[in-house]
Amino acid sequence: MSDSEKVVAVRAALKNVPVPGGGSLADYSGLSDIIITPSAIAFAISVEPGMEGAFGPVQAAATEAAKSCEPDKKILISITSGRAPSSAAPGAQNGQGGPRNQQSAMQTSPVKGIKKIIAVASGKGGVGKSTCSVNLALALQSLGMKVGVLDADLYGPSIPKLLGLDGKPAFRNEKMFKPFEGHGLKAMSIGPMLEPDQAVVWRGPMASSALRQLLRETDWGELDILIIDLPPGTGDIQISLCQQVELFGAVIVSTPQDLALIDAKKAMDMFVRMKIPLLGLIENMSYFIAPDTGNRYDIFGHGGAKDTANQLKIPFLGEIPLHMKIREFSDAGTPILTIEPTGEQAQAFTHIAGKLMDGFEKSS
Ligand SMILES: Nc1ncnc2c1ncn2[C@@H]1O[C@H](COP(=O)(O)OP(=O)(O)OP(=O)(O)O)[C@@H](O)[C@H]1O
Ligand SMILES: [Mg+2]
Question: Is the CB of residue 284 below 6 angstroms from any atom belonging to ligand 1?
């Protein structure tokens, strides 16, 4: 059977996978091209804001359906989702990003012992912020920096899983949390303090106060860089962070899809309004390299983030390929930087970390 016949067969199998709202995945408008390689089948599903959970069973059923056509191939299905941004920042003003001292209008203050705090953000969910946060932190560490990671995604903490942290709540002494440690990084997350499957339902002031505690009541020691993994969008947590702390800058993660870029622009606009310097844009899931043939497939289109960065006159930091190893190692709590630090995927992160460090030198 030729590859195009296999695509037709997979698509036919996806006709039996229902999607929320009716119809089948085969006819769903958010389904990307289906890529077939000798060892893998890959495609992406783009979903509406708030529908990520509902599409979980679709992803599982689609994996089964694809597997039934090609039992010997690996199946890589990614879901990206947009989450609705909340209202604009209170007191936000129009204008371009400026130097850090302009934040003083918001009475931000540094965190003891930490030289630079960098937020990793996106407008859209599932684009790889947490994956980039952890791998960038490890890449910066490999370049000689002392690095920590704060999981600011209070509603969906994923740092404990990505860093393979043990499940016990953080130890607190004299009002200070002792941070977790994973692969040499200091890390703090609310995840281990929640019951399994417990949803965080705080809004506004409660979330803001929890974030302040995680950030300021953790004994970080001396860090060159603290990476903050944000939830998607431009909601309470982002705004509260920009108001509480002196951020060195923000890194924006997007996929090349137009929809993700529209959302990325909204996230960038929020940082500009809050006078936080934009350190640059990363294009994640930029392209797919078939592990067996080395052929390259632009699954979401390609280069959109670079064009957007050029348009907005902010640095384009680099491209991260869509690769099964990145997901599999992440899920196992052993990020690719720890397993194959010299491999092509890890080097993509190291390249970005190097660019960020060049930026530090220029700013100092
Ligand atoms: N470059 C990549 N190649 C393969 N899989 C990836 C890549 N980047 C991220 N993923 C996978 O995509 C999924 C979403 O990634 P991640 O959790 O980092 O996104 P996020 O933007 O932090 O999501 P959320 O908005 O829910 O916080 C994960 O399963 C992750 O392993
Ligand atoms: Mg995340």
Answer: yes
